């Protein structure tokens, strides 16, 4: 394990703006015209935060992805991927009337605790996240009225969408710090 004094040098791949993750021309997030309307705006923000999280995890090996931040925290980039897959499933449970789906990884901090430095765990985390995002998106696509109250707790679709954006944004902030600890890469 690397000592806290062995911090990597800060760096960025961007050449145009030294404080950016990627040059604007290379940024995969939609930087075109702003979407029209509330549903499209919410969707655009969510999509961009999802892309940002993936960007923060790119080009790292399983050990780097599973590296914990600082003791006693269990947080790692791989743990964040697993956690967000779990959260997507939980959100879907909020908006459906059926019996809740079981946890993906178990109770407590199992999503973070099970984030081990193995390629199979990394592959599974990405597959789980992609599957759970698509499933939640599919349910929400059938609910175009943002004011509609759904699920057993009658949550407004708008509230769920804003909560999803907030959750990804918060964890992208964690991912910024985790990535900087791994290899010094910083940026937007």
TrEMBL record:
SUPFAM superfamilies: DinB/YfiT-like putative metalloenzymes
Chain segments annotated as transmembrane: none
One Pfam family linked to the record: MST
InterPro entries (UniProt xref): DinB/YfiT-like, MST-like
Region annotation Disordered: where it falls in the sequence: 17-40
Protein name per its UniProtKB record: DinB family protein
